[in-house]
Write a structure and sequence with these properties.
- This protein has one domain: Rossmann fold (3-Layer(aba) Sandwich).
- Helix content is 44%, strand content 17%.
- The protein contains ten helices and eight strands.
- An eight-stranded mixed β-sheet has the order 1-2-4-3-5-6-7-8, sandwiched between helices.
- Strand 5, helix 3 and strand 6 form a beta-alpha-beta unit.
Length: 290
């Protein structure tokens, strides 16, 4: 199954989406909200695997984060990103479809904030490596805060220099490919294309860094009120090798919600699972879909 990708206008926002399956031939839609970088292309191998496991009896929509994929306008706040996802679902998903929502990293925070608006259509929500609280207390969060004032200028500049020094796509592709030597062979092409055509843009780098900086401030106190309300419909998948989540949180969540579906990864999968372990996480999600 070849995914369909488009850049469409959602209330004046250029929105990069990927779709698998025809919504007219199914009664459920699975919606994937990326983390940060919020580039939908990274999630295509994961979506393909899920689509095949579900015997193609579903439509899948990946919604890239606004301002992370060219053409770019400006950086959007987390609240604007959440509203953007709700409007995109309203416009693109048939209103009679039941919804399975998958949020990765900061995408889980967004999905959590969306549940009240989508509760009448919700079948299940999956939070994969969720960053829904205390990001600034995590190992990676502390490093990011320490270096942000430098990174916000340095990384876009380095991106500009890289594009200047290596003007040919075939050469960039060759260089990028070394980063994915440990990724599944069948996933490498789309991962490389996503970096080449979406991520290697100074404005993209700036926008995702600014959004990450807001995450450090906003993603602090866990919203237990919403979690308690929807705990029977949420699956949490925490990494034991995840530097964006304080180490004690998975066990704390298990203690707070003993009947919740709260899983700790025992395989040391990395936070950015889409780079190497899309198939494994797709299998996990598939076996928990009713």
């Amino acid at each position: 199954m070849v995914s369909k990708q488009e850049i469409i206008n959602i209330d004046g926002i250029s929105t990069h989406i990927y779709q698998l399956g025809n919504p007219l031939f199914s009664s459920k839609s699975l919606v994937i909200i990326p983390g940060n970088p919020g580039l939908g292309g990274f999630y295509i191998p994961f979506a393909h695997e899920l689509y095949n496991l579900l015997n193609k009896n579903i439509s899948i929509l990946i919604i890239s984060q606004a301002g992370h994929s060219p053409p770019l306008k400006h950086c959007f706040t987390l609240n604007e990103q959440i509203e953007h996802k709700l409007i995109t679902i309203e416009k693109l998903v048939p209103k009679d479809h039941r919804l399975i929502l998958i949020g990765h990293s900061i995408g889980a925070y967004m999905v959590l904030k969306m549940l009240d608006k989508l509760e009448n259509r919700l079948d299940r929500a999956f939070f994969l490596f969720p960053t829904i609280e205390r990001m600034k207390e995590s190992e990676a969060g502390k490093r990011f805060i320490r270096w942000y004032s430098i990174l916000i200028y340095l990384l876009p500049f380095l991106c500009f220099i890289f594009n200047l020094l290596f003007p040919f796509d075939w050469l960039k592709r060759k260089i990028i490919s070394y980063y994915f030597l440990n990724s599944p062979v069948e996933d490498r092409s789309i991962l490389i294309d996503t970096i080449l055509y979406d991520l290697l843009n100074p404005l993209t780098i700036k926008n995702l860094l600014q959004m990450a900086n807001e995450e450090m401030v906003v993603v602090d106190k866990r919203n237990d009120e919403i979690i308690k309300q929807y705990i029977d419909n949420i699956t949490f998948y925490y990494g034991t090798n995840d530097h964006w989540v304080p180490n004690h949180i998975p066990q704390q969540m298990k203690n707070l919600y003993p009947k919740g579906d709260i899983i700790e990864c025992t395989n040391k999968y990395m936070h950015a699972f889409v780079l190497r372990h899309s198939k494994e996480l797709a299998n996990f999600v598939f076996h928990r879909i009713d």
